[in-house]
Write a structure and sequence with these properties.
9 strands, five-stranded mixed β-sheet, four-stranded mixed β-sheet, alpha+beta, single chain, Spore Coat Polysaccharide Biosynthesis Protein SpsA, Chain A, 17% strand, 178 residues
Length: 178
């Protein structure tokens, strides 16, 4: 594995940073990650498996878990494109660049993939990604509340499992050096 570290100027917009990361990537596929969300260790293998055997060039999760860290409740999401879960061939992402903005920088990427009929929708796999709402998310409270209105509150037993999974005390950082 080769890790490339990119640093950006404070004034650089998120979309520009994403575009630069795509160009610097040395693999065939690019996967976006939000540093404040939780991802299953199986996420990439599940998303890649649908691409490996078919005509699709990208996959995205359509149902995820949404955790409100302020009130410690978790919801099963509505059916929508969760941009933070996109796995896509690098070549396509160099054709359609993210907008030079800090918010909604990928809004035109999904329609582009859909217009080319290369986006596979993964449904009913919410355990692969937990969106963490903490009050300082890029899209803000209004967007979060809109998502919650169309989501289903998990029962307390499932919520306890989510709280255990996202508790950072349960993870140990391994050294990346050889």
């Amino acid at each position: 594995m080769h890790i490339t570290r990119l640093e950006h100027d404070e004034q650089e917009k998120l979309g520009t940073s994403r575009n630069n990361a795509v160009l610097a990537a040395n693999g065939t596929f690019v996967c976006f990650w939000d540093d404040d969300d939780w991802y299953s260790r199986d996420r990439l293998s599940k998303q890649f498996s649908v691409l490996r055997k078919g005509p699709f060039k990208a996959s995205i999760l359509m149902n995820v878990l949404i955790h409100d860290d302020e009130i410690k409740e978790t919801y099963y999401s509505l059916y929508r494109y969760f941009h933070g879960t996109l796995l896509c061939e690098k070549e396509i992402l160099t054709e359609i660049r993210c907008s030079d903005t800090d918010k909604r920088e990928m809004d035109h990427v999904i329609p582009y993939l859909l217009s080319r009929n290369v986006l596979f929708h993964i449904t009913e796999k919410p355990d692969l990604y937990i969106f963490m709402y903490h009050g300082n998310n890029a899209l803000g409270e209004a967007n979060f509340n809109y998502d919650l209105l169309q989501s289903i509150l998990l029962d307390q037993d499932l919520n306890k499992q989510v709280l255990e999974v996202i508790n950072l005390k349960n993870y140990h950082l391994k050294s990346l050096s050889n």
